Amino acid sequence: MKLRNHITALAIVFSACSVSAQEKDFGTLSGSLESNTIYYRNDSTINAIAPKDKIGSNNYLKLDYRYGAFSAGLQYEAYLPPLVGYSTSLEGNEVVHRYASYNSDFLSFTVGNFYEQFGSGLIFRAYEERSLGVNNSLDGVSIKVKPTEYLQIKALWGKQRKDLTVGKSNIRGADAEFSISQLLLPESPVNISLGGSWVRKYQDYTGPIADYPTSIDAFAGRAQIDYAAYSIYGEYVYKKADPEFINKYNYNKGKAILIQQSLTLNGLGLGLNLRRLENIDFRSDRDERGSANTLNFLPALTRQHKYQLASLHPYSTQAASEIGGQLDLFYSFKKGSAIGGATGLKVSANASVYYNLARNSNGTYKTFGIGDTLLFQDLNIEIEKKLNSKIRFSISYINQQYNKGVITGDGKGMVKSHIAVADVLYKFSPTISLRTEISELWGVKGEDDWTQLLAELSFAPKWSIFTSDLVQHRENKVHYYNTGVSYTYSTTKISASFGRNKEGLQCVGGMCRYVPAYSGFSLSVISSF
Questions:
Q1: What is the pTM of this model?
Q2: Using CA atoms, how far apart are residues 428 and 436, in angstroms rounded to an integer?
Q3: Which residues of 117-142 are buried (b: 16+ CB within 10 A; e: fewer)?
Q4: For the chain, what percent of residues have pLDDT higher than 90?
Q5: Is the peptide bond prior to 430 cis by the omega test (within 30 degrees of 0)?
């Protein structure tokens, strides 16, 4: 009955908005529909056990209506039940996101559910990433004021989403960003901006510990300088004592430092990210774990590989103790040059390394001390070349060290591997192309050898067919095969596939969730209007 009532309400809203949208000057309606369903089967070869009802289904319907400076919308979600790897607490269906907003050059405000970010997100970020099962929006009020071109102020308060409802904590925050250059040096080629943030969470406590902290404050300051092709950004976060499950309920303060630099010249791109984290996990519920109810955004600052074998052991940020960074280098050799040849050549290299923090004699962490435990190292290079109008290829080499014992807690120690990838695209015609990929992983320590084979045939703009096989080279080889097809019509895409999926971390933008091994048939529908 509850599901039927929700669907009826959505239909009424949709019909009313559609009628209004058809009338002149009555605003516009937009929306999207996403449905992901998997039929699971037992597969003893990969230790995949199907859930009792064999099916998982995640569904999202989003509607937005806009009229002038005003907008409103809602999002309906149904997990019937949730896909394997998502929280079982999501099971059910609700209108989980509804809002009304007003936006002008001077003032913007939202009542209801909203997303927001302060600075880089190191102190606060409310966002949605469906593929990871993350939606930590706030339900409350958000206000933004921009009195001048050089000053913007944000304020917010509300409760954070928790599964299909909201948590018990109250979240408050404010952020300000000030452009020194626009105020004092409007004609200068140098752009300098400063920013500051404050976030407080309040969570009631009824336990036996006296003076247990219930209001936790975090503060952040940031600065950015841009000059010609060079940019540097720095941010510092301080968090008061916040005993929670993740830090084993200790009373240590939290600190974070982030420095990002980039340089762009003719054909050259250079980026350097450095980060130090100390007890900086920050979430609205002190007893949560995993990625649930996080208030800040701590992605892994490593290369986000597009190939499966290179992503077999993705790094997971260690909020308790981490220091390190990554260096990105990109260079494009021009057409007609000795190395670039007739069609040019692109080379990209990346190096990332992270250690634990070194301690002082009294047990506290050193400010910039590098510890003796390597957490992760990734050294990689990729070369891309277009041979002619029909053939384009890329080759990659990746060397990784992954401290599985520390990162996952399974006690298996360091995993070392070499990975090589060859990726070739051949165009038969402007609309028909074939992409093939072969990847090989040589396990040096703590890992088997693997081979990945993939072929994808595309008939643009509508059809795409793929087949792949991920082979684990043990005494009895294990094949993680997959084959599928997708069809796109206008703004709707339908995808279907069948096969096996290896257990492990699924990552998007440096954030990950654990997915157990599963086998079965999947169907996905994504549409916008």
A1: 0.90
A2: 14
A3: bbbbbbbbbbbeeeebbbbbbbbbeb
A4: 82
A5: no
